[in-house]
Amino acid sequence: xxxxxxxxxxxxxxxxxxxxxxxxxxxxxxxxxxxxxxxxxxxxxxxxxxxxxxxxxxxxxxxxxxxxxxxxxxxxxxxxxxxxxxxxxxxxxxxxxxxxxxxxxxxxxxxxxxxxxxxxxxxxxxxxxxxxxxxxxxxxxxxxxxxxxxxxxxxxxxxxxxxxxxxxxxxxxxxxxxxxxxxxxxxxxxxxxxxxxxxxxxxxxxxxxxxxxxxxxxxxxxxxxxxxxx
Length: 230
Description:
By secondary structure, the chain is α/β, with parallel strands linked by helices. It has helices spanning about 5-10, 30-40, 50-55, 60-70, 75-95, 100-110, 120-130, 155-165, 180-190, 220-225; strands at about 15-20, 115, 140, 175, 190-195, 210. Strand 2, helix 7 (about 120-130) and strand 3 form a beta-alpha-beta unit.
């Protein structure tokens, strides 16, 4: 993409859909620790390069990846369960928002519909946002649901559903993401994409319209302040 900050910020989306882990909530460190704890629980060591491969994955996909990388496919279900248990415990102890998340969400919530599209279980997303004081600002929370056929990122489903629930066409919504997995999902759904945080290594980074250092970036907050209030 060749979009500049000016190009993107001269556009007014009809809705904004945020990723949760690593975007709104500083929980990627909890996932890293939970993965390490799950490995240790079964006497295993994280393989080289595992953290990069695991970033942004649905926890079930991550559990299967863990088992495959250590050549223990029979442990996939057990590692998945341990991973989720450790993560939930860590988040409950220490829910922390990413810098800039609270003021940005508050500003945007008075101007247009907001949703969250996450690969995490609903109880984790809603619980962490509630404890951080952010849950009330989001009209919709969309997570993978096998029963409803909503597949996890990098499939586009969570973003497609989030845009529909907000009452807008996907091309009228902005996704805010921190991982290549999430950027791919949002782009496949037809949303424009703002990447935040360190720009990931890999070919998929170019799928985002723009990357900024974080939600606290002055130009992002200025853009939110200048959007009209209905």
